[in-house]
Task: structure prediction
Amino acid sequence: MTSRKNLFYIVIDALRWDVLHDYNSAKAIMPNVAELMALGFTRKVIANSQSTQFVMPSLFSLTYPLDHGGYNTGIRNRPKSYVEVVKEAGYSTNLISTCNQLGAHFGYDRGFDRLATTNTFATLIEQLINRILYYNVELVQKNQANKADTIEIVQREFGEVLERLQDQFLQWDKSFWPTKLLKWNEQIYKASFKERELLQKNPEIILKKLRDIAPGIYWRYLGKTHAPPVPFFFARIIEGCRWRSRRFLQHINWIPFLFLSHFQALLQDLTPKLKSFVRTTSQPWLIHMHIMDVHDCKSLNRIFWRLKILKYFPRIWRAHRKGLTKRRFLYDLTLAAVDHELGKIIKSMKENGSFDKTIFLITGDHGLQYAHSPRPKTGIAHRTHYEDIDVPLVIANSDKIAQKSDNNLDSMGVTATLLEAADLPLHSSFKGISAYSGGREIVISESAGNGNADLTHRDLYFTATSLTHKLMATLRGNKISTEEFYDLGSDPYELVNIANSSLNNPHLAHLMRHLIKERSELFHARQVIFKES
Result:
């Protein structure tokens, strides 16, 4: 039996399909990634959702975003992580990430031997409040939920986060943390013990704080029974201005810059240690790396880095002149910078002989409307057009040949493809169908929109995509309605919504039947009755 190859799973957050759809255009922007493309195959992927938080369960557990109670708790309640399968096969497993979604509480640490993530603890607390706790507190205020039940939810979820933050500070690899991030997280770590004590002894104080304190500044008041009036007044003003300005600027594409509320860690911060790792680590190993540089391409937090990447401007300008890209310069400049750092890691692997012994997978979790779009930006629930969910899959150095298939591939299929490339088994709970096994006829993308993924009460949003058509539907209560429908053959950029004129279209009916059947568990729980026109 031949020795197993290493696995290098690279998620470039917000990497769109049109970046790598063509070798020549890929080479013009990301020459090192293009080199990997030449050593394997590249396929289009339709993501199972349009946001990092929503789609991560599909990449890690090969289940739908709204399976197992939804994505509120990441993969904590999912049967299996693909990492656990890899670890059981004898691999050394390593998570190296700048993505806050992969921090404490969400279960993405399952199966990893080494955890090196540059999470901002303040952001993890803010996300918890925004996505779960504030929703439950609001239900109590509206007399739509029992106060005692809500206290139980807050104690469980907030307590879990605080406990996991403490574990992360003590046990996870902090060698990747810049000094500023270390000091910030240490401050929150120390205050978290008093907050946990309050949570158990005086949970109603926590409920009041959740009502009164904005999620973005809650971390400042950990362990305190109340916010001092004068400092709190000014903190609210500052946070209100920051929050509103970020929200405003995110929707104005001609203003290219904004300041993030969290510490921005870059791939260049990780590269030196990654180079050392791939030179010295014994085989076989898995690295799951999730990098946020491209997603945060509008950020001005690291101003000197932003100026530094202007050195790639001539390359990007030439690519524009040749018609190889029509995306915004800021997006492509950041892609070029990421590719440069990946090139350093690849070079180190070639020098120590591990390059040929490694299967590379490069993908995106979702697209990015900002880079280029023929339509105005919409709310996240309706962001499932091609620019939002079409991403690439690159596999290099695999000994297997992908089947030629007319089917689609989804996010679950991305990870299934890596496992099959490495001759590793798929767990019985995995729903991914790999590129080697032909993919899917129809891909379902789904979410509960912004905020809490309450599967019982909230509207749920679904997109069903075949090779020729796309259906967007919304489940409100127990009624599902068609919102948008596109003929991708005659309208590849999804500009003409023909939903109202296609009620009897056989393709629409086929997509709806497939959606109802594929997600039957969700629809049965909501007592949905599907009647064909």
Observations:
- The CA atoms of residues 140 and 146 lie 6 Å apart.
- The two ends are 57 Å apart (CA to CA).
- The mean pLDDT is 92.
